[in-house]
Amino acid sequence: MNCFANAAIAVALTTAIATPAFAQAKLKVGLMLPATGTFAQLGTAIDNGFRLYVAEQGGKIAGREVEFVRVDDESDPAKATDNVNKLIKRDNVDVLIGTVHSGVAMAMAKAAKESGTLLIVPNAGSDPITGPMCAPNIFRSSFSNWQPGYAMGEVMAKRGLKKVVTITWKYAAGDESVKAFKEAFEKNGGNVVKELSLPFPNVEFQALLTEIAASKPDAVYTFFAGAGAVKFVKDYAAAGLKKSIPLYGAGFLTDGTLEAQGADADGLMTTLHYADGLNTPRDNAFRLAYAKSYKLQPDVYAIQGYDAAQMLSIGLTATKGDPKNAAVFAEALRKAKIDSPRGSFTLSRSHNPVQDIYLRQVSSKENKVSGIAAKALADPGRGCRM
User: pTM surpassing 0.90?
Assistant: First the structure.
């Protein structure tokens, strides 16, 4: 064997020793999202957004080829622990991405915290995830339930509304959204006269709509999403309430639902961290790429999926592809200004986006920007000890 061959072998051995095994393996991404039920469309949009970013990077993140493992979580908290443990223990995923339903996301956060598995939440706004359950390996690319609710409370109080009825599903997201709304609304002189709810995912609204009509409030604040939001908006209009009692809500009421809601949604005002027609170069490029890839217009859920992938890329680039190096991963994201189609945002100390909350009004099947409800709004992260 000549000296050149010996040198080549030495270089190969040195490279193999210097390059960790994980850097040569595929990056296994566990997508735990709803594919059936009330939130199926939302799960699809998140999946699409995440995959679009990966495709833009040539199918790799931090130099590692991406392999997807997907589980339908059915938006069922009772199945959540088993589902997330299958991804962690059976499939050995490097990172968890999920989910929509706050109750399911809580189980994911618990499992991620106990196992040390990297978790990025691309929707569920459950306040405890970036509150008491915060951890160095848990991040959110979306919002906390507190953010749009609190922003709308300030907006409605400033509009001179005094008596408001709230209505939502009786589950974590609904409860937290209403609580945040009430905090801001009553702090600014308003009064929540009645809090109505029904079990998730029940959509039999008629009795509650009759109760709203009898209460004669100045306005109604609501939190619904997906198919439930479609039915609520249509039932509200059919009951004749739209003409007499203005309806306001967290933006999920009209995001990804406008086509099905039709004219019944016209004029509705909501608060959210994204809106149609931002008309920035970053958003326009994203919307064009998404429409070309999926023959659909993107919504907030697609943005959150896209930014989850973008955050994963920032963190893993800093760790040279190692998903176990939570400290370096977290430090990179805390220092980052994430160039999102929604507008640039940073992360709070508890790893929740610090972002503008837009006031939007529905017109011609679009959530058009009416103003900024809250500038660079940071979730308080109550209970986070990180």
Answer: yes
